[in-house]
Amino acid sequence: MKAILVPVEPHSFIRSVLDAALLIAGRFGSHVEGLALGPDIPEVIAFDVPVGWTILSEKEQREHLSRSQHLFEEFMLSCGVPRKSEAADEVTCDFVGQQLFADSYIGSFGRVFDLIVLGRPGAQDEPPRLATLEAALFEGGRPVLMVPPASPASIGETVVIAWNGSTETARTVALAMPILKKAGRVIVLALDSWGGDGPSGAELAFRLERNGVRAEAVVRRLNTRSPGEAILEEAASFHADLLIKGAYTQSRLRQMIFGGATSHIISHAGIPVLMAH
């Protein structure tokens, strides 16, 4: 994971997002690129503007860009991260583009990176926004690291894979292999009666072992818990510092109506979560 994208926007825990990006970068000697992020601006604005839209004037966009760039560059400077290095394994950084990029841009630009790092969305349409996360997940084709408000002390030492046998989770595990190979402990967590047809957690753990990943399979009962609640509770019981999960293995619409594990984890995760769709 040598190329990491960090969309930067002033919000209450942007420092946690930058801390997490630097933790991952430190494990792989990555180049971290920041860009200024803002809400999508509709091309056609009707007379009745929906309440959820945030429309910035040109002056506000320039100020937003300046604040975002300053946040990124000051953080990297304080951490001693250079823009260039002769050493192949040294972390470097850069701030790309002198403009404000919209949420939807992250989905396309993110395709050329190994990882996209974003903050966990809040309840309101304030940054970090769910729209940014979903653009990265549905359009990027790359793994997304979702970071909670509290800065993590470590990422990838003890990893829990929420396994349900789905295509999305299989894809996420494949994209996470660089992290899994460096992990000290990997737990493949399966929940009784959760998930569809597919290989068992034990089968995944066995194949991960063939790739040099020290993995163990566990099965837990849901009891009265929802899958999302159970996953987070079990991850906490293992003192995991990273959760790996396929995103929206049920349709997004179904999760909006009935709820789902992805929606619960996006709203409540207290540890970094690596997701892909």
Describe the structure.
This protein is of the alpha/beta class and 277 residues long. It folds into two domains: 3-147, Rossmann fold (3-Layer(aba) Sandwich), CATH 3.40.50.620; 158-276, HUPs (Rossmann fold, 3-Layer(aba) Sandwich), CATH 3.40.50. It contains ten helices and eleven strands. It has helices at residues 14-28, 58-78, 103-109, 130-140, 167-175, 177-182, 201-210, 227-237, 252-258, 261-268, and strands at 3-8, 31-38, 92-95, 101-102, 115-119, 144-147, 158-162, 185-191, 215-220, 242-246, 273-276. The radius of gyration is 19 Å and the shape is globular. InterPro entries: Universal_stress_UspA, UspA. Residues 209-276 form the UspA domain. It holds the Pfam family Usp.
Q: How many strands appear in the DSSP assignment? A: 11
What's the gyration radius in Å? 19 Å
CATH class of the largest domain: Alpha Beta
Span from first to last CA? 18 Å
How many helices? The count is 10
Give a short account of the largest sheet: 11 strands, mixed
Q: What is the share of helical residues?
A: 25-40%
**According to CATH, what is the topology of the largest domain?**
Rossmann fold
Structural classification: alpha/beta
Rounded mean pLDDT is 91
Number of domains: 2
How much of the polypeptide forms β-strand, as a percent range? 15-25%
CATH superfamily of the largest domain: HUPs
Q: What characteristic shape results from the CA principal axes?
A: globular
Elements, N to C (H/E): EHEHEEHEHEEHHEHEHEHHE
CATH architecture of the largest domain: 3-Layer(aba) Sandwich
Uncertain runs are: 43-50
InterPro entries: Universal_stress_UspA, UspA
Family: Belongs to the universal stress protein A family.
Pfam family, one: Usp
Domain UspA: 209-276
